[in-house]
Amino acid sequence: MKRISLETLMKRHPNDEYEQQYAYIMRLLAEGTLKPVKSAGTNGRKPALCLSYWVKEEADESLKELEEELKFRLVPLIATDYYLSHLKEYQKDREWVLRLNQYLASNREQLQQQESLNERSFEIWNREKFLTREQGAKILRRCGLMQDFLNTYETAEPIAYYCHSRQVPQNMLVLENKDTFFSMRKFLLQGNGRIFGEQIGTLIYGGGKRVIKSFEDFESSVEPYMAAEENKIYYFGDLDYEGIGIYESLIRQCQGKRKPVPFQAAYERMLEKAAQVKELPKTKEQQNRNLTGGFYTYFAKETVEQMQEILEKDQYIPQEILNLWDF
After folding, report:
1. Is this model's pTM higher than 0.70 or not?
2. Is 85 exposed, middle or buried (0-12, 13-18, 19+ CB in 10 A)?
3. Which of 12, 26, 88, 175 has the most Cβ atoms closer than 10 angstroms to its Cβ?
4. 173 φ, ψ to 5°?
């Protein structure tokens, strides 16, 4: 409804006497087309009329057509309750709803085959990011459909790794940074099988926080030998809040699955070398310092105290403190 003044209403019949104007407005009130705005007061004449009214807008003919479309032209799988109550929203979303409708009417059998989220998105709307970055999720919700209905899966970040051995069981080592990954790979290629005394079969490049996403679907993203339950996974990153935080996030990501453990010998060697460094680099201010403490449970009390002392000084030890001579 919109607001309209008494003066504007009377201008519709400018040549009528006041009694005729009054009768006209009373008729509109009786029909429900008008509703008085009581706080506006009256015009002071007899019989009195309110100075302002709420007027019911006449239904747009195009909206009536949209209502017909919703009621009779969409497949039963699409719920129309929301859009029937919000026709102007349907007007905005109509293109995307009709594409979904066409897909369900003509290609519904393709839902039997699971596809990636982006593949399905393009298949239905010709936009690969429509479900993840655009209004796809909203359109589905308004149509009364859950994303599961589309039978999709999310793809994890690809895992970059160097396979030195495919034997099972084996030790695999996840590395936060690229330099350490390449150095340890070079070390193994030189004919060495052990790093800090541990036989290492596979090096995995974590790429900082990207490793958390990569481990969402680890078993499906790697070769069968890497997914074997008998294997042990080590983790080694920078000794700072962010590096420890990545490890703790990775542990949460792996709930119910095999959990990586800190590569103790490498961290202990970092501390040894750091003790000989005159000044360690300063920690970046934006790092999240809320740690659970799960990382520290793998180390001796004295080692934990050394680590915490460095962090409390707003300093850190980068992985790059180690090189080929240390492994």
Report:
1. no
2. exposed
3. 175
4. -125, 120
